[in-house]
Specification:
The structure holds 2 protein chains of 2 kinds. By secondary structure, chain A is mainly beta. Chain A has strands at about 5, 10-15, 20-25, 30-35, 45-50, 55, 65-70, 75-80, 85-95, 100-105, 105-110. Chain A is globular, with a radius of gyration of 13 Å. In chain B, the strands form 3 sheets. In chain B, strands 2, 5, 6, 10, 11 and 12 form a 6-stranded mixed β-sheet that branches. Chain B has a 4-stranded antiparallel β-sheet with strand order 3-9-8-7, with no helix packed on it. A two-stranded antiparallel sheet of chain B has the order 1-4. Classes of the chains: A mainly beta, B mainly beta.
Chain lengths: ~110, ~120
């Protein structure tokens, strides 16, 4: 059984740029959730995708968007990067939106 | 809306001593409860969860947590810690009534094991 994987591991961008982060869900899982973890804080829910549609969203602006593909992998896109977007971005997969979520290792994004 | 409070940002403990990491939550609906552990430069690993049934839940590595509905708490305990338990521990809740509103996490407690 393959766990949740994320790419890239680290990323450095400048303010105003756009970034795409990727996530492959655990084998057998059809739901992907994305979280932002700022330094010294707990993760905050960005949004969730189920069967290629966004079905839940936290308190994040529209410049945070995503996709889910037929194989249930997912992308997180952030436009017009701001310094405060610097964080660890975590992806979690589950079987349905109500199942236990299993996390990937994260992508560390630094915005300069 | 839900919120999670982890009362201690850091807990230093000597090796082989017992430890308790405190977690309190606030919610207007019934919730599921989770503890996740994060080792340095890694993602989150599920430690244990309470969904229903017995209020005392255990993990395979000796941790346990007890759901106390009246006190809205889900404290994590271990009778004897090891150096390898040094990590950040996060308590989280989720609406048990369904929906796709994700997990709500506390700010975390850094468990520091001293030799």
């Amino acid at each position: 059984e393959t766990g949740v994987t994320q790419s890239p591991t680290h990323l450095i961008k400048t303010r105003g740029q756009q970034v795409t982060l990727r996530c492959s869900s655990q084998s057998g899982h059809n739901t992907v959730s994305w979280y932002q973890q700022a330094l010294g804080q707990g993760p905050q829910f960005i949004f969730q995708y189920y069967r290629e549609e966004e079905n839940g969203r936290g308190n994040f602006p529209p410049r945070f968007s995503g996709l889910q593909f037929p194989n249930y992998s997912s992308e997180l896109n952030v436009n017009a990067l701001e310094l405060d977007d610097s964080a660890l971005y975590l992806c979690a997969s589950s079987w349905g939106s109500e199942d236990t979520q299993y996390f990937g290792p994260g992508t560390r994004l630094t915005v300069l | 809306a839900q919120s999670v409070t982890q009362l201690d940002s850091q807990v230093p403990v000597f090796e082989e001593a017992p430890v308790e990491l405190r977690c309190n939550y606030s919610s207007s609906v019934s919730v599921y409860l989770f503890w996740y552990v994060q080792y340095p430069n890694q993602g989150l690993q599920l430690l244990l969860k309470y969904l229903s049934g017995s209020t005392l839940v255990e993990s395979i590595n000796g941790f346990e947590a007890e759901f106390n509905k009246s006190q809205t708490s889900f404290h994590l305990r271990k009778p004897s810690v090891h150096i390898s338990d040094t990590a950040e521990y996060f308590c989280a809740v989720r609406n048990s009534g369904g929906g796709a509103d994700g997990l709500t996490f506390g700010k975390g407690t850094h468990l520091i094991i001293q030799p």
